Amino acid sequence: MSNKHLRQGNNIKNILKQFALEYKISELLLDYSLVSYNTYYLDDNASKKTIIDNAKINSYIDTAYNIKQEYAISIFKRQSSFYPIIIQLHTNENETKLQAHIYTQRIPQDKSNLEVMIQNTILNICAYRGIIIGLGWNNIKPHIIDIASKLRENGNHPEYYSIDISSLAEPQINSIAVKLILSKSEKKSILSHDSQLQNGGFFRVESGEILLDYSKPHYNSPWRNIYGDIYGIGKAYPVGIFAGDGIDVNEVDNKIIYTANKDGYASIVRNVMLISDTVTLDSINQKSVQNIKEQAIDTLIVKNDNLAKDVVTSGLTLEVDNLNITGNVGAANIVAKDLFINGQVHIKSNIKSIKSSILYLKGNLESRFAQIRYCENGMIKSDDLLINFLNGSKIYCSRGKISQIKSNNNIYIQESLLVGSITGKHNEFTLYPCLYGEEKVELDTLNAQILSLNKLKNIFLNDKNKLNDEKIKNELLYDELCSRNTSYIDNNLYDWDKNVLDKQHLKLESSIRILSKYDNLIDGLDENINKITQTIRDRLNKMFDISITFINKCNIDFYVRFINIYGIESRIHINANNDNMIKKVMLSKGEDEDSIKVLCYKE
């Protein structure tokens, strides 16, 4: 896609979604800025819209029509993973007040245009959320100038600075609304003011269950909220929760009733109550994690397009077999079998899965099958790995394919790697078949066996030396006894040969037999050590089958590292350039035993 595109409509979220489908790109990689907007009001049947002057919006506050806006936005690729400044908008319960919080935890390095940045960010957020720009608004420019001046100072700042943006009249209520939402306990289901559904929870419901019971309020006069909706006329009431899939809405006397029309899991996602076959939430917190454990949930969907906050908060440990996340993940620990994350993963996160598909990885991932669109400052261990863009990361893989490699990457390869192109410097490829996974475990086990056998052999050799000394001593003593003159001994009184020589000969034979057994033991240990050493050598010789193939040929220098049978590492600089373009890299045995050389093929 080119740099910027102009689009128009009354729902920015839908505009971005349609644009993402058109260009086959993730919504999370898109950004936008508000170019202009038009204001209009709808007639009673909402079939005709009348354009009104943006500067005269407040003169229509007391009319009986809903006020809406349409936007022209410029769409472009996001330049950074993070917004340069964090601003959140907050409303009161009736949504008649609007306040901006400008957080000080992330202040842009370039502070020259802070005023413009703050104002544009507020307008962008309002347009995205459908808040009517200018409706009941105060003059916010002096406040923005004052806050920008404070942010330029180097002293201490509060957590955030506030701006009161809009103040509309509060409704005059004759009788208040009563909103009861289904709550579940082990014994019974009840309608209550404080349901776990409102706190990120969920539970199973059956078709026909009443999920929400809303008693309509009575007002002295019509009133309007910051979204331009008018209440107190006709059938419009500020329930605050919209009915989504699986829910029927009925009006009975003075009540609005939400009823389940199918069995499933009930939850509230971004103020929309819905029922689905799979648990669907808009964020995960500690209460959600506990809820997931209690109900033994094995499939979970998390959907939230608010990029200013993490949908999975930091510090959590989440274990779900099948996990589908749309949004950013904080410094959390995630364990799953099948994992999909359409968002950014925090650099201090830790993820383990069998199969992974992640949009933007900055943390640690261990997965048998992994597909990553963007990996930056990440660490990955994977059997089969597919990465679109790689920068500043450490990778261990058996079989890998990387479309674009930038700079400062360490890539460890056990079998093969296919590279689209290298566009950066200081990249190193380590060819070694036993640096990751089961192969490494087996190699470590074999090395541990050799270490144990050598320790045992040393013990036996030490004992053998003692036994050999004993045998030599017995030989010398026996020879000494045999050489003695025994003619003066009366054999009738004392049998010298039998009592002395035979006993000493038995000692000598015994020491020889024991020494022979020790020789056999040591020979057996040597045989086992040689077999294991050969097994290790055979495994490490697989490094000569490892290959790096560059699809488009490589014309940027890089390093190749390898480790021989003795664990000695070698590092070679490959001087690839436009005149020396590399197509394939492999290792080959050198002329000397255990020596290795690097082969670079140009075709």
Can you characterise this structure?
This protein is of the alpha/beta class and 603 residues long. Among the domains are: 4-167, no CATH class; 171-277, no CATH class; 445-529. Helix content is 23%, strand content 40%. A hairpin with a 6-residue loop joins strand 38 and strand 39 (596-601). The mean pLDDT is 87.
Task: Spell out the key features of this protein.
elongated, 17-stranded mixed sheet, alpha/beta, 603 residues, 6 helices, 5-stranded antiparallel sheet, single chain
SS content category: alpha/beta
Number of helices: 6
- Overall mean pLDDT score? 87
In percent, how helical is the residue content?
10-25%
How much of the polypeptide forms β-strand, as a percent range? 35-45%
Largest sheet: 17 strands, mixed
Distance, first to last CA: 33 Å
Number of strands: 39
State the low-pLDDT regions, or none.
Answer: none
- CA radius of gyration is 38 Å
Per the principal axes of the C-alpha atoms, what is the gross shape?
A: elongated
Question: What is the compact description of this entry?
Answer:
The chain is α/β, with parallel strands linked by helices and 603 residues long. Among the domains are: 4-167, no CATH class; 171-277, no CATH class; 445-529.
